[in-house]
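Colleagues,

For the teaching module next term, I've prepared a clean inverse folding example: a structure given as tokens, and then the sequence designed for it. I'd like students to try predicting residues themselves before seeing the answer, so please don't circulate the second half yet.
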């Protein structure tokens, strides 16, 4: 039987979006990614319609403390019977708020209701894990890592190999790359961590070989380059155990090179394994716990990754203009509700600042040519979070977080139209687009 996606593509049937399907990534009849005639990237549904992804991580059937009497009437309706059922029906809420996809970390809610969904291959389980000081990655230098990755992907992906609502595979959920972060106190980073592993890890030997090769094979030369008194290799391990971070300019230069090599091996191997096991689905790279820096982003590009899942604070996309999905979107953060220094004129409340800046960030994201969609950070508030500065779309008592959902629903109603209205001057200049995560630019200095 012919599938709907086999029909000739018509811009008129696709709200005027003329996709360049010759440049599409993915398999026909499944979710794909394609640029349009103006260089804007879109996700393409199996039936051929262009879409802007709007998803949420952690979707669950019911909140831990759900009380049907307190659930939001806008979604549940006024009838008590409907209110009693709706907290158990997240798909109805997602649709009412304008979402079209389910992210990672939930209990499967929404998958059987026609919504697109992401799946995680969890490759960190395919090899001895490097898990310390913020790192959470497989040992990609293990001799049997490629074989393990292929076997793991085949076992995990086979049941979903022909699932058309599956948008794509994420290699790992909240992978930890242990990169330097100027916004927090220094902690051991990936190269230091690998140099401090037990000798049973292949990454330990690879890290020392890599580091010594950069400095003529001499530990004394490494010590001079890093500005550290390294009498022996054990000194690095002692620093790591004490959580004393190596952070000199010389060390960070070598660390960036090591991260690039690690990331290239990680993304190339996981992509190969996924394409062998799930050839119809997009490869989305890994979900991270926050910004990871240029060395990791540069490796998460085609051909290894079809559409990169990128922390939204690290947009815009890489220089090649590859498509991305903005991940972890949420404005319940101090960066969004903090009062600007030297503010003049009538003061806004913290909630007003948060929502105004959030709205501005969403609008810039919709206009960004490389951003094919986004995923909200979490479905449910974390324990201890207090509205209106909680990060979930559903509160612990089961009520919808209207401070977020009303703004999001309004944005969703116009997101694709706003995106179609953008006419980028040239796709090659994509990196000139202002970063999405720029709270200050969304709020005039006079407020």
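(Answer key — instructors only)
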């Amino acid at each position: 039987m012919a599938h709907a996606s086999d029909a000739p593509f018509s811009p008129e049937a696709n709200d005027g979006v003329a996709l360049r399907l010759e440049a599409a990534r993915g398999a026909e009849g499944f979710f794909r990614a394609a640029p349009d005639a103006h260089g804007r990237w879109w996700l393409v549904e199996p039936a051929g319609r262009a879409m802007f992804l709007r998803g949420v991580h952690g979707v669950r059937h019911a909140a831990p403390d759900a009380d049907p009497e307190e659930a939001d009437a806008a979604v549940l309706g006024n009838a008590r019977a409907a209110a009693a059922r709706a907290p158990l029906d997240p798909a109805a809420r997602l649709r009412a708020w304008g979402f079209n996809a389910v992210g990672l970390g939930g209990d499967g809610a929404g998958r059987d209701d026609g919504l697109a969904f992401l799946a995680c291959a969890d490759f960190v389980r395919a090899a001895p894990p490097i898990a310390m000081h913020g790192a959470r990655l497989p040992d990609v230098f293990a001799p049997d890592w490629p074989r393990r990755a292929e076997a793991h992907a085949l076992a995990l992906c086979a049941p979903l190999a022909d699932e058309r609502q599956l948008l794509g595979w994420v290699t790992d959920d909240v992978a930890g790359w242990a990169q330097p972060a100027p916004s927090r106190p220094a902690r051991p980073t990936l190269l230091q961590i690998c140099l401090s592993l037990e000798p049973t890890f292949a990454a330990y030997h690879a890290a020392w070989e890599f580091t010594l090769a950069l400095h003529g094979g001499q530990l004394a030369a490494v010590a001079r380059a890093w500005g550290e008194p390294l009498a022996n290799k054990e000194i690095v391990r002692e620093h790591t155990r004490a959580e004393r971070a190596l952070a000199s300019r010389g060390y960070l230069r070598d660390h960036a090179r090591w991260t690039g090599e690690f990331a290239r091996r990680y993304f190339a191997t996981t992509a190969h394994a996924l394409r062998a096991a799930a050839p119809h689905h997009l490869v989305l790279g890994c979900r991270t716990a926050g910004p990871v820096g240029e060395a990791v982003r540069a490796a998460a590009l085609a051909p290894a990754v079809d559409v990169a899942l990128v922390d939204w604070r690290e947009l815009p996309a890489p220089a090649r203009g590859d498509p991305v999905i903005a991940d972890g979107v949420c404005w319940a953060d101090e960066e969004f509700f903090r009062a600007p220094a030297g503010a003049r004129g009538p003061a806004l409340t913290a909630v007003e600042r948060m929502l105004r800046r959030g709205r501005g960030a969403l609008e810039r994201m919709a206009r960004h040519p490389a951003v094919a969609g986004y995923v909200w950070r979490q479905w449910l508030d974390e324990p201890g979070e207090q509205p209106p500065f909680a990060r979930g779309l559903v509160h612990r008592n089961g009520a919808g977080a209207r401070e977020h959902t009303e703004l999001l629903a309004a944005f969703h109603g116009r997101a694709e139209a706003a995106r179609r209205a953008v006419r980028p001057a040239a796709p090659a200049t994509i990196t000139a687009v202002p970063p999405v995560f720029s709270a200050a630019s969304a709020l005039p200095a006079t407020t």
